[in-house]
């Protein structure tokens, strides 16, 4: 039995990833309750602050995805309420959530990351879409991968193989955010590396290999059972596995993250990993990558979540 008394799990929110967040929150709440923890699961609405003030939790576990769940806002609120929480602080979250900023910081450590262009919607329209897209292709070549600079779950993201596909990809991207990140597409094996820190330094968990049926790991492939095949641990050489682990830990450290994170990368045909992005609030659903990695490591998800909460409470 844990020394933790009352634990708060935050789930839901108003981002495009609300439904995924609710599933993550439900999963974390279930595994914690199974371990004897008194769990309260709440959405981020007007009742949250009065509830916390009336009955302060010993610690909080944030399972909010996108928007305020990962941009540091809700963590700032928790600090105002004097509630310890699992995960990175507000400033680190703001930087990690902005993919171009995270790429720049990680690249400065010497890590490989695909060449890219960041383009706000206003610039795209004001300077002429056709001319702008032509210059992007001249600079980066084809194929390309287009995604919102802020956001997750592959919403608004698409693979562009021809010049004719790029305008529609940009429109789809801008439907989910005001800024697009256009990257040179790297062909290879898609890998997710989860990192956990119990207070003795960040350590990488076994890599998860992602093989979507449709060839692209989009929203449906992520959250529809049977649409993607996962291998945990990934079918990589020992050298590639070690390189992926080092990259994830380096990214976690460079971005000043805390407790847990998940780094997404591509391993090319030569076994070299390329950093794509990092997630400060990894999904916890039945098809999410973080729980798969935890299971592959031989750990129990409920025990790990409890340990992280205890660490946050003692840190506070």
Automatic annotation (TrEMBL):
Q: In which pathway does it act?
A: Cell wall biogenesis; peptidoglycan biosynthesis
Per UniProt, residues of the ATP-grasp domain are 103-310
| GO (cellular component) term, any one | cytoplasm
* Residues at which Mg(2+) 1 binds: 264, 277
Principal location: cytoplasm
Name the cofactor(s) required for activity, per the record: Mg(2+); Mn(2+)
Q: Describe how the cofactor binds.
A: Binds 2 magnesium or manganese ions per subunit.
Residues the record marks as active site? 17, 153, 288
Q: Which NCBIfam families match?
A: PRK01372.1
Q: Record's family? A: Belongs to the D-alanine--D-alanine ligase family.
Role description: Cell wall formation.
Question: What name has this protein been given in UniProt?
Answer: D-alanine--D-alanine ligase
Q: To which species is this protein native?
A: Spongiactinospora rosea
Per UniProt, what is the name of the gene that codes for the protein in this document? ddl
